Structures are given as structure tokens and as C-alpha cells.
Amino acid sequence: MKLLEVLKENPIILALDGMNREQALRVTEEMKDVIGGVKVNDLLDKHGTSIVKDLKKLDVVVMADPKISDVPRTNARRIGHYVDAGADIVTVHATNSMEALKAVVERCKGTNTEPIAVTVLTSIDRYQCAFLYGRTPRIAVPELAEHAGDSGLSLLVCSPLETRIIRDYSDLTYSMKIINPGIRAVDMDAEDQKRVNTPAGAIKAGADGLVIGSMILNAGKENKEDPMNFVAMRDVAEDTLAEIREARG
Asked: Containing domain of residue 116, as a range?
């Protein structure tokens, strides 16, 4: 799978959140040689799968993040649009029924697209998680991971705080590939994230990929004449990759 091959070399997935189409394409073009891939979320709401097609023309790994959650037939139809657009990876909620998760797995068979199960969002703290799921993230996340694995998925999204727990939970979840959002530099504002860690901390816990946005994209923004300071962005990306490689040993 191309995605996993890329992430072995460079696990940074740059989140293109809050941008317009032109900005997202420009950032991707300028940064694609220092990152492993890109993630699109809100751009999907405005442009649909056409933004995926545009990004794929730049020869990058694309993670589409619609967080699909519905009945089996609708799930298969929805993920099918991303398959046809060439997305490398597409997010679905792990809280889908087993039948609904199996439907997306079946739709992706024989294609270059992999579904990835989102467990508990990193913006949810342990108290909110207990209210929403009836248990804390330390319990809910590995249980949802195993549910996704039993449904045929092999990729997971979780916070960096649960990665090691998933690895130690069962033989099935140990072997799954994990992508962590909620990545922040030391002393960096967590913004709307609640369960976060540093790039090195996440990698040492066992993450295979890291979704990173503001940590890289905000670099050099204090320069009002050039708010898209690609030199500064590239420096942060390269420093982050060096940190990751050191953490990997």
C-alpha cells in the first residue's frame, strides 16, 4: 500500500484545515517533498471529491476526512465517491455498526483506497468521553479499535495518549496501523484539542503516522508581509521529521 510505504519514510500528514482551494494546493505543492501526505476535511464540504482529485494531481498521499457514519448501504455509496476520486485513505467512525464497517471495507477491496476507523476524537476529554460513551478513553478507544479490527479494518485514528494502550490491548489491535492527530510541540497551545502529545512522544508510543496542522502551518505567521512563510514552514517540518527519526531510533 502506497500510504504505508510513504509513512515509513515520512509519517507527517499535513492538515489543510481552514484553507480555500488555492491555498491548499499551493501549500501542498510547496511542502510535498518534506511531508508524507495531506489531509482534507472542511474543504470536502465546499468542493466535494474534486479537491481530492486536484491534490492527487500533485502526486501526494491524500487522506480524506469526511468521518462517514451511516447505514451500510449509504456508507458504501459515500466512500465509493472517495474511492473513485483516488483518495488513499478515508475516515469512518468506529462507532458504525459492524455491518456498516464491513460495507466500506468491501467497497474498498481491489482499490488503492483504505478506510480508517476514527475512535474517540482528540477534542473530547475523559469526562465528556464518559458521558458520550459510558467509559473513559483508556477503555473506549481500545474497545472501538477491536470492533473496527473485527469488522475488517486495519487502520485506526486515535489520540497519542491511547496508542500504547491499543498496542497492548490484544493481538488484533497490536497489529493495526495507527495515525495520531492532536500533535503539538512542547508548550504549544493545545487549541481545541484535549488529548495531545509531541511528535516524539506519539512515535515512541507506537504511532505510524501523525496528522499535524497548526504546528507547521503557523510557522512564521508573525511576518505580516508573508503570512504563508514557506521557508519557516519547511524548517519546522524538517525539524519535526528529524525529531521523529530520532524517536524511531
From this structure: 2-248
